[in-house]
Amino acid sequence: MTAQPAPVPQVAVVTGATGGMGRVIALELARSGMHVITVAREPRRADSLREQIEREVGTGRLDVVPGDLSRRDGVIDAAAAVLARWSAVHVLVNNAGAHFSEHRLSPDGVERHIAVDYLAAHGLTLLLREALERGRARVVNVVSDTVRDTRQVKLLGRPRPATISADQLSDLTRLNPADGFVPFHAYARAKLLTVMAGYDLGRTLQHQGVTVNAVHPGIAATNIVDDLVPPALRPFRGLIRRFLLTPEQGASAALRLAIDPALAGVTGRYFLRDVDTRTPPVSYDVDAQRQLRATSDRYFLPARPR
What we know:
Blueprint: E1 11-15, H1 20-31, E2 35-40, H2 47-56, E3 62-66, H3 72-85, E4 91-94, H4 112-127, H5 129-134, E5 138-142, H6 183-205, E6 211-216, H7 223-228, H8 237-241, H9 247-259, E7 269-272, E8 275-276, H10 286-300
Parallel strand pairs: 1-2, 1-4, 2-3, 4-5, 5-6, 6-7
Antiparallel strand pairs: 7-8
Helix pairs in contact: 1-2, 1-9, 3-4, 4-6, 6-10
């Protein structure tokens, strides 16, 4: 009797998987039977994740692609490395993110929150588009509810949603300027751009069977949350962490969008953990979405890998 070839596993690409929620997401996707690819600026940092997956799931279930997602070339090279080995991608979880306390530009001349918290996710989705279409993929953008309220201490007053000026969307270098720079607002604005571009991509790709959704996973005890704690409260970070979600609890919201059969076909949504939630009115402005998409696509496509 002729032996049947082993089935080809589905492929999941996860960014920001060397720690915190990303590590949990990668592990659980591997546990679900997927082959996981993670992008890491320092591939050695993924060694412990590989060891855990091999110990708990099996060998050969993780590929590590080197890539600095704060750089345009880093995003392009990471996408090219994925496409060189895999023709179809079934899940893309854009989980990488960062918060910066000072205004600085990326090597490509855009503010660092825009580079890491928006362009990295958009660029990977754009450059992997054909593979995502072949896999009829689910794209999950991990964002933050700061898009709906930029107050760090939410005790008094009304919510202050993240803002964006339409006249800035034609030039990425104009986003989050040094003049009047507020780190938390800059972080929230980058996440708002991710949501806006995702809404447009959700419409564009739905006819190819690809879904694009954003999720705020809750406030989990991760390194980025430590960076977001207001200075006056930093002496109490250890106490605050006790009341936050665990990385496992936070990861569950992203995993639900990635693999829950009940959400097949759901696209163009923002979820506050597991609740479908409205975002600021500007995020639904179709003209603004298209302007943002056009500007962001031009940032990557001239050097798109073939």
